Amino acid sequence: MRIGGILETALYAEDVKRAAEFYRGLFDFPTLLESERLVALDVAGRNVLLLFPRGGTDEPFAVPGGLIPPHGGSGCGHFAFAIAAEDVDAWRRGLEEKGVAIESEVSWPGGSRSLYFRDPDGNLGELMSPGFWAFS
């Protein structure tokens, strides 16, 4: 048996609608689901970015097929989206044009490059080109 990858990544936001607008506006992610409990965004047609209100998942949640156990996080989370090596400069310009400050840029020993930025809730986003991880 093998794991097929990470399907969902969850971030927690003070204002989920604002967070969803940020990610839709910056990356053009389509909305898969939007409810009072969460917003689910399509990332590259194979991953899901879940946006939950901070503290909104501290209790179990009943669904027709069972019960989702409580989960949550505190502080700022981190995630990285894969980008093509030839797109790093275009992404830098795109972030700047949309008023998203680049907090740091790293050139890794294997040739990979990362652009770090914050979302409106302080979560640390990263755009990373191939070369850091052996499988990227």
Could you please describe the fold and organization of this structure?
- This protein has two helices and ten strands.
- The two termini are 22 Å apart.
- The mean pLDDT is 94.
- It has helices spanning 16-27, 88-97, and strands at 8-13, 31-34, 39-43, 47-53, 61-63, 66-68, 78-82, 102-107, 113-118, 124-128.
- The radius of gyration is 16 Å and the shape is globular.
- The chain has a four-stranded mixed beta sheet, covered by helices on one side. Strands 7-10-9-8 form a four-stranded mixed beta sheet, covered by helices on one side. Strands 5-6 form a two-stranded antiparallel ribbon.
- With 136 residues, the protein is α+β, with helices and mostly antiparallel strands.
- It folds into two domains: 1-74, 2,3-Dihydroxybiphenyl 1,2-Dioxygenase, domain 1; 76-136, 2,3-Dihydroxybiphenyl 1,2-Dioxygenase, domain 1 (Roll), CATH 3.10.180.
- A hairpin with a 2-residue loop joins β5 (61-63) and β6 (66-68).
- This is VOC family protein.
- It holds the Pfam family Glyoxalase.
- Residues 5-130 form the VOC domain.
CATH H-level superfamily title of the largest domain: 2,3-Dihydroxybiphenyl 1,2-Dioxygenase, domain 1
- Helical/strand content category: alpha+beta
Order of helices and strands: EHEEEEEEHEEE
Task: Using the 3D structure, state the CATH architecture of the largest domain.
Answer: Roll
Total count of helical runs of at least 4 residues: 2
Counted up, domains total 2
Helix content: 10-25%
CATH class of the largest domain: Alpha Beta
Question: What is the overall shape?
Answer: globular
The largest sheet, given as strand count, sense and whether it forms a barrel, is: 4 strands, mixed
Gyration radius, in Å: 16 Å
Domain VOC: 5-130
Protein name: VOC family protein
Pfam families: Glyoxalase (PF00903)
